[in-house]
Amino acid sequence: MRAAFAGRGEVTLIVVVTATLYAVAWPTLHLTHQVPAPLQPLIAALAAFPFLVVRANPVLGWSISIAAAIVIPVAFDSTPEAPGGPPWQVVHILVLLALYIAVCLTEQRERVAAVWVGTVVVFAVYAPGSDWFGWVVGLTTILVFTVLLRRLWLSRRQLERQEELSRAERSRRAVLEERARIARDLHDVVAHHMSLVVVQAQTAQYRIGGLKPETTAEFDSIAGTAREALDEVRAMLGVLRSDEHMAERAPQPGVDRIGELVEGSRRAGIDARFGVTGDTARIRTAAGVVLYRIVQESLSNASRHAPGSRVRVTLRVADGDEEAVVEIVNGPARTWAAEPGVAAETDGAAGGGNGIRGMRERAAAVGGTLSAEPTDDGGFVVRATLSIVETARQAG
């Protein structure tokens, strides 16, 4: 907004200055040149109006002004009352010098050299007597001064940019240090204890005698689930520790592992069933990861808030359709359940938890939608609809 106001203010100033110069050049033109009255507005405009482009295109303005400086003395004689010096109006000289300075400050070296040569030659030719030498020295001094001023300004700008980069680098390092600290804390709090869970589950059959085969299988299932969770935690910690997010990690799970996920939940005591219709190979990788995470979170919610309930997971990819729909429905709790309202407060759509909110964010990240609401029989249903054709569209 400030830049817009500054731009308009600059344009207004240039227009006002040009109008003032023109108001001076036209009434005083008859004092310096013998110009017919009908042509006086045009000749005065040639002297003053090039200043209009002093900011936008100083080379163009200088070209018009220097051409007028060459033509006017040839086409029109000076009046006897004209003061000594170059055969131009004072307004014309001021505008020409202003455009000359603007070129020296803003244009490339080759254009600056050409403008300097052209200006020096014109003044050397039209300046009376020995005045031409003073004009040449003056124009050269202006050139040297403006070039030095330009270099000083550019060096200041470069220094400011370097300072900005240094501040950004310090901020980036602070973020990386914070990420590394978080990774260390997560490792201490989560990964260490998950490792203990794996060890305890794997050694339970050796430490506790007389375990039944189904109990041993249960411990093995617990160890496998904990190991998989530990691998994912370590992968996330690797990302936190990595400067460029290039930590080595296993491929993200997709739709091909949803069946394994449901089977693992069944071994953990959840009455879960999985059904799939359609060609799941059409589902793009990003959508597959989101589908897996939604099913994973929904099964976890069902086990916590509706223990003993039956859970049905269905994945549909209709032929010719551009969307995949996953639906996770659980009935009411059959064993001990959380107090009424706990599930909604923790993971519900209107609650303050992160479970369903996180699933919605995952779905939105790949251009999908997710709904979560209680059912009439006291259960809960999560339904997500995700686009599966982004890769195909890009390839086409």
UniProtKB/TrEMBL annotation:
The keyword Transferase applies. It comes from the Bacteria. Residues 291-387 form the Histidine kinase/HSP90-like ATPase domain. It is an enzyme of class 2 (transferase). Keywords: ATP-binding, Kinase, Membrane, Nucleotide-binding, Phosphoprotein, Transferase, Transmembrane, Transmembrane helix, Two-component regulatory system. Residues 178-244 form the Signal transduction histidine kinase subgroup 3 dimerisation and phosphoacceptor domain. It holds the Pfam family HATPase_c. InterPro entries: HATPase_C_sf (IPR036890), HATPase_dom (IPR003594), Sensor_HK_TwoCompSys (IPR050482), Sig_transdc_His_kin_sub3_dim/P (IPR011712). CDD domains: HATPase_UhpB-NarQ-NarX-like. The chain crosses the membrane at residues 12-29, 35-54, 59-76, 88-105, 112-129, 135-153. It catalyses: ATP + protein L-histidine = ADP + protein N-phospho-L-histidine. Its EC number is 2.7.13.3. This is histidine kinase. The lineage of its organism: Bacteria, Bacillati, Actinomycetota, Actinomycetes, Mycobacteriales.
